[in-house]
TrEMBL record:
NCBIfam families referenced in this protein's UniProt entry, alphabetically: nadE, PRK13980.1
EC number: 6.3.1.5
Name of the protein in its database record: NH(3)-dependent NAD(+) synthetase
Source organism of the structure: Candidatus Glassbacteria bacterium RBG_16_58_8
All residue ranges annotated as the NAD/GMP synthase domain in the record: 14-251
Enzyme class name: ligase
Amino acid sequence: MSELSINNEQVAHVLCGFISSEIRKFGYDRVVVGLSGGVDSSTSAFLAVRALGKENIIGILMPYKTSQPESRDHAMQVVDALGIRSLEVDITPMVNPYFALHPDMDRIRRGNVMARERMIVLYDQSHARKALVLGTSNKTEYLLGYTTLWGDMACAVNPLGDLYKTQVRSLARYLGVPGEIIRKPPSADLWKGQTDEEELGFTYEEVDRLLFHLIDKRLNPAELEEKGFQSKFVKRVTEMIQKSQYKRHLPVIAKLSDRTIDWDFRYPRDWGA
């Protein structure tokens, strides 16, 4: 894993500066963070406290009735360790009426609905508290499309999006995130017993190493096989990246004018930030 090693002190310094700069240039000084009890949201919260101060961070817990009790316990460990304010909003009575209308919904659809409902809560609370939503998705999830569009992907600022999952774990240890949060099997906690790696069929360590060589080093399939990666694994991960490309961009706008948003009008200098 040496190729994925990071200088945690330097990364923390850069990301804290990023959070402070990006939040404040829009005229805000506080953020809301959805705390799931996982390593990603915990790491974002720890960075935010360093960047903005604990008085400017609000951690929001949003359990569903099937959420594991340890998820709440771990989220509250983060709240207590950082001394931040918190709010708990049970999304069960919000999503169950919709589930009742569609009793044939599979687990993926239900999970997507819950992820988007949680983002409704976060954006409402951000408005009520004059704050911005801080992102918690990592580079591995983004590249694989293992994240919900307009759900857990949604945010104003994301400090973790260029860190692979294994790098987030390393940074979390440096920041002092509780060890049991870092060590537990990653899970979106969308149904009982769900884990990311079981659902994906490979570990984050395995796929992060492949993604590093595929994306960062730009190795082709033949070169990846020379590195010891199985062709079926390379093909599957490559297809996941290709099929989820639409998730990594704002909706494409049909170009009609000379100054089309996101085609020509795209740089911060255009509007003074």
